[in-house]
Every structure is written in structure tokens, then in C-alpha cells.
Amino acid sequence: MQSDDFVSLGEAVNALATLCEQRLTGLLYWETPQRQTATIGLSNGRIVSISCSSKMNQAALSLLSTLESIHYRFSSRSFYQPARLATLPDNAEILRLLGWGEDPLPAPKGAAVISDSGTDSLNAETRAALEALLTEYMGPVAAFVCQSAFDRAGSTSEAIALLAAEIPDPDDAKTFEATAKRQLNS
Question: What pLDDT score does 174 carry?
Fold first, then answer.
């Protein structure tokens, strides 16, 4: 999951809530246009660590709410398990402190649907889902492979085929293709 452009704090918090609801493990990276960065660690959907501008956990939490324009990227391939869990409020309180529920936030969007006609668009959510899946097979280079494939593809089906062709192992390529189609049609 990632944003293609800078989004509001509300949209970034919505993405964080979605990752929590999906009970994912990994790191959510936030960056502002001024290059201020934050990292939020998730373990099975629970927020276990927060860092922002060299502050950690509770001190970093107050800084997050001051961010206005954010580009975010989630990686399930990276995770730092702290030696001891931070003393942080529960997820609901963290989300509330970040403004969850104060303004109407966009609801989590549903999965993209692959159309049989091949005229479907490669929207941001579809691109993010495909990149996250390809990262499981190729690691960080997947971002570059995806960008190239998305530039050439005219549809989601074509993008899936182009990406599968980049996976060296034929069995992995078939698994990637089947998983991508299943996830995007669910």
C-alpha cells in the first residue's frame, strides 16, 4: 500500500487504520514534502512503535498530528521488533489522537476489479496492491519493475502478465499471476 502523491493527514491515517484492520505486520513510512519522515511499526495490526524527527513512541505521536501533507508507503518485508514493546496507547486511541473521527475520512476503498474487456484502469490502489505482491517475490526492486510495467500496460490484466514475466522462476510467476487476479477480484 502506498500513495502515489502527497495526501492529507486524514488520508494517511485512513491508510494506517486499514493496515491495522487487516492485521498486517511491517513498517509504514510517512514523508512530507519538507523531507520530514516518520515510521510506524505494526505487528499483527497492532501499532508497536512510532518514530518521527528523532523522537520515539509517545513523543513521536504528538509530532505525527502536525504533519499536513504526507506520502506513505507500507512494507511488509521490513519490520523492526523492539526488544521491549513501547508504552503506547491502543490503536483506537492513537488513531483518535491523529484526528480519526474528527473529520469525515474517506472509507477504505474496495479492491480493484479486473474487467474481462481489458479496459480497466490501473488506479493507485491496484498499482499498490500489485507492487506489494511483487515485492514478496522480488524484494525492493519490485517498485522499479512495477513502474516500468505500469507505464507500458493498458489494463490491469496486462500489468499482471507483464509483472509475472519479470519473475525468474516459472512456478513463482504462475503463483503471482493467480494470486494477483484472486486478490483484485475479491
Answer: 93
What CA–CA distance (Å, rounded) separates 39 from 56?
10
Q: Using the 8-state DSSP alphabet, how is residue 85 labeled?
A: -
- 46: how many CB neighbours lie within 10 A of its CB? 14
Mean predicted lDDT score pLDDT of the chain: 80
Contact assessment for residue 3 and residue 124, using Cβ atoms and an 8 Å cutoff: yes
Mean pLDDT for the stretch of residues 92-114: 59
pTM, two decimals, is 0.53
How many degrees, rounded to 5, is the angle at CA 44 between CA 43 and CA 46? 65
pLDDT for position 56: 84
Query: What's the CA gap between 15 and 132, in Å, rounded?
Result: 14
Tell whether the torsion through CA atoms of 186, 178, 17 and 108 is positive or negative: negative
Q: Which residue has the cell 484472486?
A: 182
Using alpha carbons, select from 49, 68, 60, 76 the residue that is nearest to residue 131.
76
Percent of the chain with pLDDT over 90: 12
φ, ψ for residue 25 (rounded to 5)?
A: -120, 130
Cβ atoms of 126 and 140 closer than 8 Å: no
Residue 183 carries which DSSP code? H
Task: Identify how many contiguous H helices and E strands the chain contains and give both numbers.
Answer: 7, 6
